[in-house]
What does this fold into?
Amino acid sequence: MVNPQGAARWRGLPPDLPAACAQLVIGMRGLKDRSGLNLTELAKATAISKSSWERYLNGKQFPPRHAVRGLCRAARQSEDALLAQWALADAAWSGRGHPVSSRSDRTSPPAVSIDPAVPDGPPATTPFVRPTRRALLAASALFNEHPMRTAAGIFLLCAAMVTPAAVLHASRATTLPPAPRPPVCRLRSCEGRNPRTTACEDPTTVASHTAADGTRLEIRLSPGCRAGWIRAWPTHSGFRIEITGPQAHPRTAVGTARPVGKEVATTAMIAAPDPSNLRACYYPSLGRPGRECFGGTG
It folds into this structure.
């Protein structure tokens, strides 16, 4: 067939192109040639890039439906026939139509020489892309038509995906600390226990006293365990400390060795339902009279 005046001399289509797709490309080429538009004018008229039209018309990329409609509008021709061809090609390419015949049965247009005046790009050796990339191609075509709106849509989509993740991360970061452990003993169940090895983790000093010989003493209380004891920093050996309280057995500690440095002496624990009734006494020397006492009120 003789091309109309000014028609492009087209590159041969890829040999493995399905027959329905090849017929669609031939129809699009013919419509473009009859319109008298070159690729630059066609790109401007359809708002689709020139490089995209080169791929569509050389069989290197499957044309989206809106591109076929845009070509018909630019050529001022009815779109019904070409859209019907597009539907058949789309079904063949995506595998929804009847099985495509073997390569030897496909109809391919004869190869013609290339018109140097029409830049058709590199040789058409790449077949139509696989269906897994169809969404990317559609997005590319949409971006070519509406770059600003497409970019804004992508930004909003990313924000919608990131925001829930940020909220989840913030909720995890503000998780309340674990609740404190319950005390291992309480009131009478603490009596006789060593305060240094019993996990009563909230002790406070409710009263303190410094004896005449310089020994410093404190009445310690654990509100959680509701138990008390004496803590002392003796200055010599041979002393005795005792803590008493109502409805509790007295607890005594005797120092028989000379303290080293800031060594601490403690009594065992007693029940302390009312810390103000706790009473501590210090006996500076065993076998000698004299004592110094103070209570839980200071």
User: Anything to note?
Assistant: The first helix runs from residue 19 to 35.
